[in-house]
Design goal:
The strands form two sheets. This protein has a six-stranded antiparallel beta sheet with strand order 1-10-9-4-3-2, with no helix packed on it. A four-stranded antiparallel beta sheet has the order 5-6-7-8, with no helix packed on it. With about 150 residues, the chain is an alpha+beta fold. About 20% of the residues lie in helices and about 30% in strands. The chain has one helix and ten strands; from the N terminus they run αββββββββββ. The protein has one helix at about 10-40, and strands spanning about 55, 65-75, 75-80, 90, 105, 110-115, 120, 125-130, 135-145, 145-150.
Protein backbone atom coordinates (compact mmCIF):
# COMPACT_ATOMS: atom_id res chain seq x y z
CA UNK A 1 0.00 0.00 0.00
CA UNK A 2 2.85 2.30 0.80
CA UNK A 3 4.27 1.70 -2.71
CA UNK A 4 1.09 3.09 -4.41
CA UNK A 5 1.45 6.58 -2.88
CA UNK A 6 3.51 8.94 -5.00
CA UNK A 7 5.90 11.38 -3.49
CA UNK A 8 5.14 15.10 -4.04
CA UNK A 9 8.00 15.35 -6.58
CA UNK A 10 6.73 12.40 -8.66
CA UNK A 11 3.16 13.75 -8.57
CA UNK A 12 4.41 17.13 -9.78
CA UNK A 13 6.40 15.54 -12.67
CA UNK A 14 3.37 13.55 -13.79
CA UNK A 15 1.16 16.66 -13.69
CA UNK A 16 3.74 18.67 -15.67
CA UNK A 17 3.93 15.91 -18.29
CA UNK A 18 0.10 15.78 -18.61
CA UNK A 19 -0.09 19.58 -18.89
CA UNK A 20 2.60 19.58 -21.61
CA UNK A 21 0.93 16.71 -23.48
CA UNK A 22 -2.56 18.26 -23.37
CA UNK A 23 -1.22 21.69 -24.35
CA UNK A 24 0.67 20.24 -27.31
CA UNK A 25 -2.33 18.20 -28.45
CA UNK A 26 -4.62 21.25 -28.19
CA UNK A 27 -2.09 23.35 -30.15
CA UNK A 28 -1.77 20.70 -32.88
CA UNK A 29 -5.55 20.44 -33.14
CA UNK A 30 -5.94 24.22 -33.39
CA UNK A 31 -3.24 24.40 -36.07
CA UNK A 32 -4.83 21.57 -38.07
CA UNK A 33 -8.13 23.46 -38.09
CA UNK A 34 -6.91 27.04 -38.52
CA UNK A 35 -4.35 26.43 -41.30
CA UNK A 36 -6.82 25.03 -43.88
CA UNK A 37 -9.38 27.70 -42.96
CA UNK A 38 -6.82 30.49 -43.39
CA UNK A 39 -5.62 28.99 -46.72
CA UNK A 40 -9.22 28.93 -47.92
CA UNK A 41 -9.96 32.51 -46.86
CA UNK A 42 -6.76 34.07 -48.22
CA UNK A 43 -6.49 33.29 -51.95
CA UNK A 44 -3.03 32.63 -53.40
CA UNK A 45 -1.35 35.56 -55.09
CA UNK A 46 -1.65 35.29 -58.85
CA UNK A 47 0.96 36.98 -60.96
CA UNK A 48 -0.13 39.28 -63.75
CA UNK A 49 0.18 37.63 -67.12
CA UNK A 50 3.19 38.86 -69.06
CA UNK A 51 2.36 36.96 -72.23
CA UNK A 52 1.52 39.14 -75.19
CA UNK A 53 1.25 36.39 -77.80
CA UNK A 54 0.27 32.74 -77.58
CA UNK A 55 0.38 30.14 -80.35
CA UNK A 56 -2.34 27.58 -79.75
CA UNK A 57 -2.03 23.87 -80.39
CA UNK A 58 -5.56 23.94 -81.82
CA UNK A 59 -5.83 23.88 -85.60
CA UNK A 60 -8.41 26.26 -87.07
CA UNK A 61 -10.17 23.45 -88.94
CA UNK A 62 -10.49 21.39 -85.71
CA UNK A 63 -12.71 23.99 -84.09
CA UNK A 64 -16.32 23.59 -85.21
CA UNK A 65 -18.45 26.66 -85.98
CA UNK A 66 -20.58 27.81 -83.01
CA UNK A 67 -18.16 26.42 -80.42
CA UNK A 68 -15.63 27.65 -77.90
CA UNK A 69 -12.39 26.46 -76.40
CA UNK A 70 -10.69 27.56 -73.17
CA UNK A 71 -6.91 28.01 -73.33
CA UNK A 72 -4.16 29.56 -71.21
CA UNK A 73 -3.02 33.04 -72.13
CA UNK A 74 0.05 33.38 -69.93
CA UNK A 75 -1.19 32.68 -66.43
CA UNK A 76 -4.79 33.63 -67.19
CA UNK A 77 -7.57 31.62 -68.87
CA UNK A 78 -8.86 32.81 -72.22
CA UNK A 79 -11.58 31.62 -74.54
CA UNK A 80 -11.39 31.10 -78.30
CA UNK A 81 -14.77 31.21 -80.03
CA UNK A 82 -15.60 30.18 -83.56
CA UNK A 83 -18.80 32.05 -84.34
CA UNK A 84 -21.67 30.45 -86.28
CA UNK A 85 -20.38 32.43 -89.30
CA UNK A 86 -16.94 30.80 -88.89
CA UNK A 87 -15.05 33.85 -87.55
CA UNK A 88 -12.45 33.27 -84.82
CA UNK A 89 -12.56 35.54 -81.76
CA UNK A 90 -10.65 35.41 -78.49
CA UNK A 91 -11.37 37.01 -75.14
CA UNK A 92 -10.22 36.85 -71.58
CA UNK A 93 -12.20 34.03 -69.93
CA UNK A 94 -12.30 35.85 -66.60
CA UNK A 95 -15.74 37.33 -65.93
CA UNK A 96 -15.62 41.03 -65.11
CA UNK A 97 -18.08 40.55 -62.26
CA UNK A 98 -16.40 38.24 -59.74
CA UNK A 99 -13.61 36.66 -61.82
CA UNK A 100 -15.35 33.35 -62.53
CA UNK A 101 -14.39 31.46 -65.68
CA UNK A 102 -16.81 32.02 -68.56
CA UNK A 103 -17.76 29.44 -71.18
CA UNK A 104 -19.30 29.44 -74.62
CA UNK A 105 -22.91 28.25 -74.88
CA UNK A 106 -23.69 27.09 -78.39
CA UNK A 107 -27.44 26.89 -77.69
CA UNK A 108 -27.71 30.67 -77.23
CA UNK A 109 -24.50 31.67 -79.09
CA UNK A 110 -23.29 33.69 -76.10
CA UNK A 111 -20.36 33.64 -73.78
CA UNK A 112 -21.88 32.83 -70.43
CA UNK A 113 -20.74 33.09 -66.84
CA UNK A 114 -22.31 30.34 -64.78
CA UNK A 115 -21.58 31.99 -61.42
CA UNK A 116 -24.22 34.73 -61.66
CA UNK A 117 -25.79 34.18 -65.09
CA UNK A 118 -23.83 36.89 -66.87
CA UNK A 119 -24.04 37.00 -70.67
CA UNK A 120 -21.59 38.44 -73.17
CA UNK A 121 -22.19 38.73 -76.91
CA UNK A 122 -19.71 37.54 -79.52
CA UNK A 123 -17.94 40.90 -79.35
CA UNK A 124 -17.32 40.41 -75.61
CA UNK A 125 -19.83 43.09 -74.64
CA UNK A 126 -21.77 42.49 -71.43
CA UNK A 127 -25.42 42.25 -72.46
CA UNK A 128 -27.17 40.67 -69.49
CA UNK A 129 -26.59 39.92 -65.83
CA UNK A 130 -24.29 41.55 -63.31
CA UNK A 131 -20.95 41.85 -65.21
CA UNK A 132 -20.11 45.58 -65.22
CA UNK A 133 -17.61 45.61 -68.12
CA UNK A 134 -17.00 43.79 -71.40
CA UNK A 135 -14.46 40.97 -71.64
CA UNK A 136 -10.97 41.92 -72.77
CA UNK A 137 -10.71 41.08 -76.47
CA UNK A 138 -7.59 39.62 -78.05
CA UNK A 139 -6.47 39.68 -81.67
CA UNK A 140 -6.67 36.31 -83.47
CA UNK A 141 -4.60 35.40 -86.51
CA UNK A 142 -5.09 32.01 -88.17
CA UNK A 143 -2.16 31.16 -90.42
CA UNK A 144 -2.18 27.71 -91.99
CA UNK A 145 -2.48 25.19 -89.18
CA UNK A 146 -1.74 27.69 -86.42
CA UNK A 147 -3.83 30.09 -84.40
CA UNK A 148 -1.92 32.99 -82.87
CA UNK A 149 -3.66 35.05 -80.19
CA UNK A 150 -2.18 38.33 -79.05
CA UNK A 151 -3.11 41.24 -76.84
CA UNK A 152 -4.34 44.36 -78.49
CA UNK A 153 -2.28 47.38 -77.62
Amino acid sequence: MANDVLSPGENRARRDFLNWFLGTAAGAFAASVLYPVSRYLVPPKVEESTAHTVTLSIKPQELKPNSGQIFRFGSQPAILVKTPAGELKAFSAVCTHLACIVQYRSDISHIWCACHNGHFDLNGKNIEGPPPKPLEEYAVNAKGDQIVVSKRS
